[in-house]
Amino acid sequence: MSPVLETRDLSRRFGGVDAVAGVSMAVEEGTVLGIIGPNGAGKSTLINLITGHVKPSHGQVLVDGRDVTGRKPWAIAKERVARTFQIVKPFRNLTVRENVAIGAMYGPERAGSAREAIAQAEEALERVGLGERAELAPGELSVADARRLELAKALAMRPRVLLLDEVMAGLRPDEIEPSLALIRSLRDDGVTILVVEHVMRAIMAVSDEVLVMHEGRELTRGAPEAVVKDERVIEAYLGERYARRARGEDADPDGGREPEGGDAAG
Amino acid sequence: MNVTAKERPGAAVGPRVGGGLGGRAWIWAALIALGLVILVLAPTYLLLESEQRTLASVFMFVVLAQGWNLIGGFAGYPSFGNVVFFGLGGYTTAVLMAKAGANFWLTVPAAAVVGLGFAALMGIPILRLKGHYFAIATLGVAEGMREVVINVGGLTGGNKGITVPAVGSEATTSYPGNTGFYFYFLALAVLSIVVVWAVSRSRFGYALRAISQDEDAAAAAGINTTRAKIAAFALSGMLTALAGAIYAFQQVTIYPERLFSVDITVLMVVMCVLGGAGTVLGPVIGGVLLQYLSEWLRDNFTDYHTFVFGAIIVIAVLVLPMGIVNFARDSWKGRRIAPFEAVRQYRL
To answer: What does the pLDDT look like over A227-248, one tens digit per residue?
Structure first.
């Protein structure tokens, strides 16, 4: 089986910094790839490179085996690649329903008219649980609902590949569970999903495979259970001292003052 | 089946789109038809020639404000050089009539093509800029174009202006007089309103509104932002150039200083913004109110009418930065917004 989404040696330099350096990966149809890594690891840049919002300095992006490197974001969207943004980007001058309808208007299955698309928005709204708030302005939504709106906008495009950039950030634990259930149900529908997330527990619960990024590079990848136990991962996230302490060789007198790091970076 | 009409318990704001309003749509259609009938009959039964001239200029500014609305209101690109299309449209008509002896009606489509084409061409590089930078660049193009027109005096008459053959044996088209121009500008105003109305309900209109908020998100949703922006600018340029074409014939003699005057751009912007940018009715209301006010002030405060006019605009923008139409809609829905809060709320 060939992967639906693939990157080959994907790289991007900003000034003298390698934001993303030689990331190669392949995601099979209907699977979830989780991407974790500390702040500045290049996770969002990786998504921006895939969707064409940032041009790669080097390397390739393939969707369904077709090279789409360097194409404009709207052309990538036509390949049924949808995304959310880490910082939510609602269209504030439109209602929640109209926001979602934009995806149906200009997505791969262009609706015949604006009205048709607005009717089609219903399905995505219901799926994320925003049906009741469809006529509100985005500014009237809670943080959790604003994240759901981001997701609904992407879903309205009926994507084959869905790139989720921290859709669970800032949510309470009881708000995270429905999001996880939604990701699972999308995967079961055959959508290929890439999840960038800081909430470790969430990403472990939902990913078939986890890619750990550090300073723009792939640090390691594998099954979620294996990755969390990987010492290099703990080190990258929490620093060397914490890693030593975890190994039980705490030689550092200040070691005890390290932050309690259950969920890694919050 | 119209989903927008479904009852929703959490709905605080009524559906803004969908149009399936049944009875209300008929009332609107009837009111618009009645208004049009009155406007068509008015010159014969109600208006003096001078009043027709005033109304013609009111209609012209409605067209200019609607033209600006497409790029500045819907797409959110504050063009401060839209007068360049007005000037180019006017000079296209004047030069073709005066130098080529063309019939006025043949110059009108030519002016439309020039406005559309120039907007598209200048849009390709300039629409990459945003906000203030876009505003400054468009202003620069308009100012530059005036100098170009002045300097190709052989064709345009330079600073001395150009006169179209409107009377006598040289006239290529008989001069229609005040009543004629009243109708030309009325027809163009109606056209501009219909165009903007159609855009506001179309996918294209939604694309522009999305672009005005966030271009990255719009592009991620599959909108070809470059193409949509250029199309909006081209349509804006076309409507504006058409107004310029009729204006040139109406004035008979035109000068670069007037046809490329930054005052005209400022008026379009203020009319559109004060009426309600990004709405269909806003530029109509803004255009009618301000142009009428301006004419009235000129008649009644001959010496300091510009000062009074400016003061009124400043106060109006402070009190109603969201525009009359948006203010009315929000008041209607019971959503009150404090005057200075509005700037933030509407992301002006």
So the answer is: 888 888 877 776 666 666 666 6
Q: Cα distance from B333 to chain A (closest Cα, Å)? A: 12
B333 burial (CB, 10 Å; 0-12 / 13-18 / 19+) is: exposed
pLDDT digits (tens, 9 = 90+) for B114-129: 999 999 999 999 999 9
Q: Where are the domains of chain A?
A: 1-80+159-266, 91-158
pLDDT of residue B13: 37
CB contact under 8 A, A133 and B217: no
CA B238/CA B258 separation, integer angstroms: 19
- Please give the class, per CATH, of domain A1-80+159-266: alpha beta
Domain ranges of chain B: 47-164+176-261
Interface test with B, best of A49, A54, A78, A106 (most B CBs within 10 A): A106
Q: At what angle do helices A240-247 and A231-238 cross, to 10 degrees?
A: 140
Nearest to B347 among A92, A95, A122 (CB): A92
Question: Mutating which of B203, B208, B341, B346 best tests the A interface, going by the most A Cβ atoms within 10 A?
Answer: B203
Q: What is the pLDDT of residue A102?
A: 93
Mean pLDDT to the nearest integer, B99-116: 95
Q: How confident is the model at residue B345 (pLDDT cuts 50, 70, 90)?
A: very low
Q: β-pairing, A192-196 with A209-214?
A: unpaired
Cβ distance B216 to A73 under 8 Å? yes
Name which of A97, A99, A101, A96 is nearest A137 in CA terms.
A96
- Considering Cα of A172, then A173, then A177, then A182, what sign does the dihedral take? positive
Closest CA to B246 of B112, B81, B48: B112
CA-closest candidate to residue A11, choices A19, A1, A21: A21
